Amino acid sequence: MPATFRRALFQVHLWTGLTLGIVLAVLGLSGSILVYDTEILAFGQKPAPQASQGDFVMPLDALMAAARERAPGKRAQATLTLPEQAGAAAVVRFQGPRGGPGARGTDVFVDPATAAVLDVRPAPSSALLAFMHQLHGNLLIGGREGRQVVGWLGVAMLVLGTTGLFLWWPKRGQWRLGFIVRRNARGYRLYRELHGAVGIWAFVVFMIVSFTGAAIVFPETVRSTVTLGNAAPAASPGFSLRTGPRVTPVAGEKPLGLDGAVALVQRAYPGVPVRAVSAPARPDQATRVTLGSPNAGVVSTAFIDPWQKKIVYVRNPPGAPALDNFMALQRPVHDGSTWGPVWRALVFISGLLPALFVTTGIVMWIKKRRARRIVSAPKVLEGVEA
To answer: 0.70 cut: is pTM over it?
Structure first.
């Protein structure tokens, strides 16, 4: 590698790390915490009640009706999550009012085989996790601007990873030294070897997590890049995915129930397991059906008009083109919810790396500056009179 090019890469790597390092460390640490948010929420909670053994499941409308009878907010929007294994309870979560009393919502545990209510308790919540979601998602900067800042920080991590790889590249015959921290390494050499060895061992995971983080914020840019500009923009649903589409009630018509909505979706996508169903709180709201196995890479959400008895829109539909599936994978890969527990642990570790890199990088920079000052300090020659 030409010396001039290497010096330029070093300056990019150095000053990107020095100027953004602390923010990147905060972003990474918050991400690591969120990887295990489910376990953090469950900590200190009493175990979920056990249900009857067996595969028989009562009609979903019956399970929802039983839960509504016991829920404080019977008219609130409710999501029924089906059990993942025999003997587990179905859970109906009623959303609480935003910012008001009972904002946590309520969980009602129902035996799927008998529709008996097993327990009613406040939905688990954590102020720490809520803060971490805001910190990691938009750096506590409201609106689209904060989200874009986080996206550009993901790009900065990609720049640091790419330039770091070039700067790490060992000389001929010294490859082994690039992967280890020698036992006798001290001072500057210790931090240099730690910085490089950890970086190369974690390089692939670090780059994947950084890329997916940027892709979540800039999906159309990624779509265009991976297809060399030949991809059509992703179809817009025309409504907020959080609130769903507005539907028009039909006078004298009975709306489609949860079982009917699930049957409609299963006819369209046979063999794809149903994970959850969300019942509308108002007549002008759609029913949602969430599809995909618990460890599936892509989770699909179907919005059903219960009055017209038809599917209005499907987010990440099963059998979608490869590019759409690739884009839908970005979030579950980034948060570690796919590819199993090993990948999840690797994503957790990758979030700790920016803190390590900024610490070792700053220490190396300080030590180098100190060494230069010592070398350039004026020498006093003994025995020579001024």
So the answer is: yes
